[in-house]
């Protein structure tokens, strides 16, 4: 089976991790700050905080932005559940903004209309999580403008967009947001096995996230309520968690960072090839905004079902049966049972639901060969035209 995504691990990656195993520190050593520094300087952000997953990064980002009971978090329904769940972790309420049928990202016009209504009802969001689906950035300029007008904070969930650019600058520089989140799960652009990172230019947000990721405990005297009892002393000043990244993960990430730009460039080569080879099929190919250099985590096609004599499910199953490890990203979050129990229902976000009924993610990963890609094209062509 040709998988839809797969990590690329080099001998240098392996050696870096083995070196850590032989060193004095398996956690809380020099590799984590070195990895943070490498990412921060690559994207042009002031602070980077590495954690054990993007899910944890989303949680501490929401906490640092003051999201709490009674507050609202808004995001897109076409995302992984983690982009919404972080609001629930904080005791806040979650709502969604429908997608733009062309970009598949949260639609700024829908957002504005919903904000106008929310202002009247007194239910404006505290935090908006803007997800760069497939790696293509959201319309951050429009979102920033609305965030200033309506007073909400912006988190970019750039789990798919590591190494991508918006308006010629690396995503993660937080020019149009308060905090940006990266994921390093093995299917994503670079990996630390499990792992994530939060970027910000704001000193106070960085300080808060630093506390939340490690028990809310500080060793800095100026943050304590009184003089330390002695050299052993630390104080818990917040309720935090253990969301720390290990040295092994950071060493892997640091080594992977050296190939980040190459990984993304290879994804662009593969995507351009797909664009050309799939041009004549009854499917909608991914649309790319000219302002963006996508991280291209995913290559999503949409079936033009009115031109096919097969269902979405049949096409999907026939691809899998023929060794093509396709996937679907994503099941609209508001249709998950957990969210339905909160009152959401089918029909709430029609563009998202329409997208879901047609979308298929084709295999794409840096190690993919032309032969593998030709096989995907051949099988897909057969399945769609037979
Ligand atoms: C993968 C992913 C996450 C969660 O990442 P983890 O590192 O697995 O916690 C969150 N949001 C999006 C959009 C993702 O794709």
UniProtKB/TrEMBL annotation:
InterPro entries: DegT/StrS_aminotransferase, PseC, PyrdxlP-dep_Trfase, PyrdxlP-dep_Trfase_major, PyrdxlP-dep_Trfase_small
Catalytic site positions: 188
Protein name, as recorded: Spore coat protein
Pfam family, one: DegT_DnrJ_EryC1
Residue list for modification N6-(pyridoxal phosphate)lysine: 188
Gene Ontology biological process: polysaccharide biosynthetic process
GO MF term set: pyridoxal phosphate binding; transaminase activity
Keywords noted in UniProt: Capsid protein, Pyridoxal phosphate, Virion
């Amino acid at each position: 089976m040709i998988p839809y995504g797969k990590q690329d691990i080099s001998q240098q990656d392996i050696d870096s991790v083995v070196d850590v195993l032989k060193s004095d520190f398996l956690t809380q050593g020099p590799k984590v700050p070195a990895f943070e520094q490498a990412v921060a300087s690559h994207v042009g952000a002031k602070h980077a905080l590495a954690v054990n997953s993007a899910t944890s990064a989303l949680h501490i980002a929401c906490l640092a932005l003051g999201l709490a009971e009674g507050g609202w978090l808004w995001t897109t329904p076409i995302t992984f559940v983690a982009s919404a769940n972080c609001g629930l972790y904080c005791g806040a309420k979650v709502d969604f903004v429908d997608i733009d049928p062309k970009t598949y990202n949260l639609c700024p016009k829908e957002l504005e209309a919903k904000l106008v209504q929310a202002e009247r009802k007194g239910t404006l969001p505290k935090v908006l999580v803007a997800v760069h689906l497939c790696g293509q950035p959201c319309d951050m300029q429009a979102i920033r403008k609305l965030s200033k007008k309506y007073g909400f904070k912006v988190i970019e969930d750039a789990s798919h967009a590591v190494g991508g650019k918006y308006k010629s600058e690396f995503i993660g520089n937080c020019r149009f947001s308060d905090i940006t989140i990266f994921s390093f799960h093995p299917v994503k652009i670079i990996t630390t096995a499990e792992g994530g990172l939060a970027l910000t230019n704001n000193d106070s947000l960085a300080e808060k996230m630093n506390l939340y990721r490690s028990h809310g405990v500080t060793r800095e005297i100026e943050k304590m309520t009184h003089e330390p009892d002695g050299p052993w002393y630390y104080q818990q000043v917040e309720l935090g968690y253990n969301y720390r990244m290990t040295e092994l993960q950071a060493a892997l990430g640091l080594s992977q960072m050296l190939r980040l730009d190459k990984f993304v460039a290879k994804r662009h080569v593969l995507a351009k090839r797909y664009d050309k080879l799939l041009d004549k099929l009854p499917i909608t190919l991914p649309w790319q905004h000219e302002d963006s250099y996508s991280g291209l985590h995913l290559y999503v096609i949409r079936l033009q079902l009115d031109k096919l004599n097969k269902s979405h499910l049949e096409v999907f199953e026939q691809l899998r049966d023929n060794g093509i490890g396709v996937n679907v990203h994503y099941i609209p979050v508001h249709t998950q049972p957990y969210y339905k129990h909160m009152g959401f229902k089918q029909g709430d976000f029609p563009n998202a639901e329409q997208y879901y009924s047609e979308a298929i993610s084709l295999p794409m990963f840096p190690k993919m060969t032309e032969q593998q890609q030709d096989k995907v094209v051949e099988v897909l062509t057969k399945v769609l035209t037979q």
